[in-house]
Please model this.
Amino acid sequence: MMRSLRLACAVIVCVAGCDAKRYSPTPLITTATIDVYAVSASPVPGAKKATDPETTTPIFLVTPAIISTADVATVQRTKGSPESLTVNLTPAGASKLTAATSKPAGMQAAFVVNGTVLSAPKVMSPLSSGFRITSNVIANNSEQIFSALTGK
Model:
């Protein structure tokens, strides 16, 4: 009886500990990239042409990026249905994002990971120290995306 209880406790601790580790903030590996761009519906000088992954319509990423990899402190999986990706910014990145989204009024932003647009939502309220990306691309590929960013 006592042995069964110890084994059950060990399993609970492992599952709880593994779950906490799975969703903890993790720094990016050196080869990973995350960029956030303002989006234009039509071509503008210097913009990069891309595709909105939800609508498959062409979008244009206004350069330079609002924030880039150097502005990212950590990323983490976020529990929920669907699972999403939370990006936590450095103080410098938070300042840039706050300035760019201080009057969002439905501006569209593209979240680009390792060169691929994962989501291009309309920003309805100011963003500051971080953001959560939820899209079909992330929901269907969360393990691969997180691994590509963190090596874990």
In short: The chain has a mean pLDDT of 86.
